Write a sequence for this structure.
C-alpha cells in the first residue's frame, strides 16, 4: 500500500512540475537530459582577478623579467674613471634604464661629467644631473624635437662601462644567472657584489 501511495503522489506531482518549468519546450538552448533529469549547459565564467601585489612582489624578489631575449635580468651600474663598478642594482629585464639612474647616482658624490647611452635621454635625468653640478654627456634620441648639447669626444669614454660589464660577465654565475644559478635577486646581487669586489682587488 505504501508503494502505491508513493507512486500516486509522484504521478500527481508530475503535471505540476511540468507546469512550472520542466516542459521540454521551455528548456534553455543546449540543455540535455540524463535519466529523465535536466542538465543545464555550463556557462563560462569570467576570469578571476589577478594576484595583484603578490605577483608583483614575487617578480621583484626574483628580478627575472621577459624581454626580447627571453627571461632576463638587467644589471644597472655606475663605474668610475678607471672602469670599476661603484654602484649597481638588478631589476627585471623589461624595466627601463632611466627609472633606476637617479637612485644609483643620488648617494654618490656628484662627478664633473657623466656619460650614458641614449636610453638615459630624459629631461628629468638631465635636470637632476645639472642641479648636482654634473655635465650630462648623453646622445639625443632621434625622436627628440629639442636637441641638447652633446660632446662626442667625451662620449668615447663611455666604453669604460662596457668593459666593466664584459669583466663582470667573465664570471659564469653572472653571465648565465636567469637560466642556471640564483633565483632570488638578493642572491644574484650578492654574487655581483663579490665579483665587483674581486675586480677592485685584481685590476
Amino acid at each position: 500500500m505504501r508503494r502505491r501511495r508513493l507512486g500516486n503522489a509522484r504521478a500527481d506531482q508530475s503535471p505540476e512540475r511540468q507546469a512550472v518549468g520542466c516542459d521540454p519546450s521551455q528548456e534553455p538552448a543546449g540543455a540535455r537530459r540524463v535519466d529523465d533529469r535536466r542538465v543545464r549547459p555550463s556557462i563560462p565564467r569570467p576570469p578571476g582577478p589577478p594576484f595583484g601585489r603578490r605577483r608583483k612582489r614575487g617578480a621583484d624578489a626574483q628580478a627575472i623579467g621577459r624581454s626580447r631575449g627571453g627571461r632576463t635580468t638587467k644589471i644597472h651600474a655606475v663605474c668610475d674613471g678607471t672602469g670599476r663598478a661603484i654602484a649597481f642594482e638588478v631589476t627585471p629585464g623589461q624595466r627601463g634604464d632611466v627609472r633606476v639612474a637617479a637612485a644609483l647616482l643620488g648617494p654618490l658624490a656628484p662627478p664633473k661629467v657623466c656619460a650614458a647611452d641614449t636610453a638615459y635621454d630624459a629631461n628629468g635625468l638631465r635636470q637632476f644631473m645639472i642641479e648636482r653640478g654634473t655635465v650630462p654627456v648623453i646622445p639625443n634620441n632621434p625622436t627628440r624635437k629639442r636637441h641638447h648639447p652633446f660632446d662626442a669626444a667625451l662620449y668615447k669614454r663611455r666604453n669604460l662601462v662596457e668593459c666593466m660589464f664584459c669583466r663582470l660577465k667573465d664570471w659564469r654565475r653572472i653571465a648565465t644567472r636567469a637560466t642556471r644559478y640564483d633565483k632570488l635577486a638578493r642572491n644574484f646581487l650578492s654574487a655581483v657584489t663579490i665579483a665587483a669586489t674581486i675586480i677592485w682587488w685584481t685590476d
Summary: The longest strand covers residues 70-79. The domain at 53-202 is CATH 3.30.420 (Nucleotidyltransferase; domain 5).
